[in-house]
Amino acid sequence: MDTFFSAVLGDLLSRSISFMVDSYYQKHQGVEENLQCLHRLLLRIQAIVEEADSRHITNQAMLLQLRMLSNMMYRGYYFLDNFRCRIVQAHAQDEVRDHSLALSSFNPLKQFCFSTTTRKMVSEVSERKELHKMLGHLESIVSDMQEFVVFVSSYPRMSRQPYCSYLLLENCMFGRQEEQERVINFLLARHPPGGEEVIDVLPIIGPGRVGKSTLVEHVCHDERVRKYFSTIVFYGLGSNENNGDMAFLPDTGAVKYRNPFSGKQSLAIIELVDEMDDETWKKILHSLRGDHIAPVSKIIIMSRSNKIELFGTTKALQLDFLPKEVFWYFFKTIAFGSTSPVEEPKLASICMDIAALVNRSFIGLNVHGSILRSNICAQFWYSYLKRLKYYTDKHVRLFGEHPRDTNKNNGGLTYVWMHKNKHGCSGLATYKLYQASSISQNNLPTIRSIDMVSRNVKPRAKYEVLEWQSSIPPYYSYIAQYEILAQPKLMLPPKRKRSGALSEELV
């Protein structure tokens, strides 16, 4: 009798599992259709956003709507790519598990795998709910965009060369359109009656290499700004040295632009490296009120310190690194180039892992994205992911923070573990990143970051590498100085068990 009941229960269990699996795969087909529908909606939203970006929109409400629409597009693409990546990773795990189970006709892990499949199906139910929610949200947004599209078409179009998508993003400022319009509106705002002697000051605050200089350069290239000011003068890093004495500030400025046909007022742009006290700021204002070029009516002051907010006559503009959804859209466009990520789901999954390791760094985005685009191959990308993960994890264990933050907080100096190349070179090296202006472009290193990754260069004890050249103003080049060191024992983390494949990638 016990044998009979056991057989009946076994048959019922087998039928239940078969029913659940069949239902799962039927619903999975519906998921793929919904993903395709989501992709079509995102393409429609992307077309609207790109059309709006190509026009001179001055209405603040329209700009706010555009910002909301853009953010929704980035969130949608991040959701879509992340969803597809999870499917790819789940299929890869299933193939490994199925292969291991096939090695034996009787395997005690089968029961565990059935329970894993059950949990996986429960998880898929919640994911499908998220997919339906995102799909419905985008459908409602698209249906409400008709008036927005009509209004957008009434604004004049900006002149722009026809680039493919990744060249377009590489040759324009990405993700700062709303901030750009806010700075321009500040500059074009007229003084109140009787306030001619007052100098309006806008502080721009943000961490290093977040895009403050790039934002200001694009503002200064805007035709509306150039028509408004007779002179645009830039006071760079050397202007606030000499023990903080700013008495000779007007004589050290670099004239960025002259317009003899505009009114007699000028714009001063000040970039600070160190913090500044009230007394120094008073000296700056006193110097700029003089008639050395043209009376200064507006000042933009940039710094990493929040203390300059006290010097502003208007609310400071805070810049931060891009949100992960926006960063991912930018990163995948640079990395894939003209290749579609939809056609390469395995590459997209690897690329998303690399983007997470880059940690929203603008320099890292362009350096790593360009290296990936140079060799669109799953084997190369996976090997690059392993090396980057090894280096990042090791750095976090030793120093307690991401390499981007160490580089920012330590004057550009950090450490990097060199991978073995065909010359057998490996070891610990100091790494210092600095930027060179467009004036010194003739003295750039001949070795590029892709040369180091391809392992074709035999590094010396000390050498420089051209990490990245920006193709947009202010056209900075970023150079890394390496110095290979003998590995000090104090720099090494506690010994842990690692897989042989991973240990061989880096030393």
TrEMBL record:
Domain called Disease resistance N-terminal: residue spans: 9-92
Family matches, as Pfam families: Rx_N
Native organism taxonomy: Eukaryota, Viridiplantae, Streptophyta, Embryophyta, Tracheophyta
Keyword vocabulary terms for this entry: Leucine-rich repeat, Nucleotide-binding, Plant defense, Repeat
InterPro entries: P-loop_NTPase (IPR027417), Rx_N (IPR041118)
The name this protein goes by in its record: Disease resistance N-terminal domain-containing protein
GO MF term list: nucleotide binding
Family label: Belongs to the disease resistance NB-LRR family.
A Gene Ontology BP annotation from the UniProt entry: defense response
